[in-house]
Design brief:
Blueprint (H helix, E strand, L loop, with lengths): L12 H14 L7 E3 L1 H8 L3 H13 L3 E4 L3 E4 L4 H22 L3 H20 L3 H17 L4 H8 L2 H14 L2 H18 L3 H19 L14 H10 L27 E2 L32 H6 L5
Antiparallel strand pairs: 1-3, 1-4, 2-3
Helix pairs in contact: 1-3, 2-3, 4-6, 4-10, 5-6, 5-9, 6-8, 8-11, 9-10
Amino acid sequence: MPTAPASAKRPPAAERVYAHVKQAVLERRYEGGMLLTEGELAGAVGVSRTPVREALLRLEVEGLLRLYPKKGALVLPVSAQEMADVVETRLLVEAHSVRRAVPLRSEVADRLEELLEEQRSRAAAGDLAGVARSDRCFHAEIVRSTGNAILCRLYDQLRDRQLRMGVAVMHAHPDRIARNITEHAGILRALREGDTEAAVAAVHQHVSRVRLLVHGSDTPEVGGSVPGASAMEAVLAEELILPRPPDTPATPGAPSPSAPPGSAPGRADRPTPDGEGAPVPEANPGRGAASSSAAPSTSLEGAAAHGDSR
């Protein structure tokens, strides 16, 4: 009997744990502030604890987790400052890149059209994580068109942060998905028409909206608030992206209903936005896949139910 090719072999155990945890963090199935334990993760992926430790160390180096000996791994939040830094870096890189892309529009536009159609399909299917990925790919394609390898590597370093922020924004502002697609179409139209200044302006307005949404506005020209803006603040506060008053007690939580079976981590005492704060408590061993407690709401209706409305 012929042996299976090496390429068909399963990835190493540590790689499987790494991929499982990282995807769950980026898609907010493991939210900021959740405490992951080695035992729960080992059970979820079907491996021993040794590869779990190896994967968690790797994710700590990447800034997604903080390890606490004998307690677990805390999913680190995205701080308000980090969000501002990401937006500022994106503006610098993407404005330059789209300016460089205009002379190459015949080579770039068709690929951007494909990515735009993919984003529409993901949105129609209700796949928020897929929408966030296709959104990010749209912008990355513009950066790649510059042919500047160093610039591309710099932009690639933002990938994980962009995906986490993108999913959080879409959970809080589902109406934002359609607007994102419209704005992408505007960027593509300016490129096809060879209008450099219009393309740069469209990119600047589009990227800037992420920062404005956090502060309750989606109108850079006027600066007024929009319905549902407070819901964005609610989700970001729940994710620890925005600071909270120091006397605010920790809110116990549970994993999102979409979390994989056997991977139900607990929520630790809330740290401050940079990850420092109260000691992480012992994880509750009784909380697992059978837990019936609901995850913190990420919908507009859920935010309103908690009195977060304007």
